[in-house]
Amino acid sequence: MTNLNQILQEEQTVVFQLMGQVYGVDINSVFEIIRMESITKIPHSPHFVEGVINLRGHIIPVIDLAKRFGLGQNEQSQDSRIIILEVSGQTIGVIVDSVQEVLRIPINNVEPPPPVIDGIESAYIRGIAILEEKLIILLDQNKILMEEEKNLLLQANMDESQV
Fold first, then answer.
1. Nearest-angstrom CA–CA distance, 92 and 101
2. In 3D, which of 79, 78, 81, 85 has the Cα closest to residue 124?
3. Mean pLDDT, to the nearest integer, of 75-100?
4. Residue 163 — pLDDT band, cuts 50, 70, 90?
5. Which uninterrupted H or E stretch holds 92?
6. Which own/partner contact pairs does 110-118 have at CB distance under 8 Å and 24+ positions apart?
7. Are the CB atoms for 109 and 14 separated by under 8 Å?
8. Number of C-beta neighbours around residue 23 at 10 A
9. Do the strands 49-55 and 21-26 form a parallel or antiparallel pair, or are they unpaired?
10. DSSP three-state, residue 71
């Protein structure tokens, strides 16, 4: 019984590196993690949208998470990955520097974001996990994109699939 209670009081998180910081996203929103591949550019898309990929017959929009968060331009390396996520019912890919591991994080090790970073631009931060000497910024994948950005991606995705 203790094991069940312990499992219910923790979450599994995919931990990744982005511009020297450690982030995590709920494993339940992750479909898969793939190596970088050729990305087809989409004209007139938001600056952080790299384009689309064909993943086994499905057109998936791909965003550069560093650009989306305003962290600047990131150089891709052989460790760079695309994490395929479900974001508010839409499948997208996000480019990260590297994927580190999957961790079980006890719920009581998660703190809310500090008030000083509160605001519309930080709405995607769900909390900060404290594990030993490591701080992990936990993302709310459903808030990575604002509603109008989701609609733009959906529209671009529909336009691309009609070509």
1. 20
2. 85
3. 91
4. very low
5. strand 90-96
6. 110/11, 110/138
7. no
8. 23
9. unpaired
10. coil
Say what the pTM is.
0.84
**What phi and psi, each to the nearest 5 degrees, are found at residue 34?**
-125, 160
Q: How far apart are CA 63 and CA 48, in angstroms?
A: 6
Are the CB atoms for 123 and 138 separated by under 8 Å? no
Token pair belonging to 72: 């600047």
State the sign of the Cα–Cα–Cα–Cα dihedral 75, 77, 82, 83. negative
Give Cα 35 to chain centroid, integer Å.
Answer: 15
φ, ψ for residue 141, nearest 5 deg: -60, -25
Give the pairing of strands 81-87 and 90-96: antiparallel
Say how far apart CA 138 and CA 121 lie, in whole Å: 15
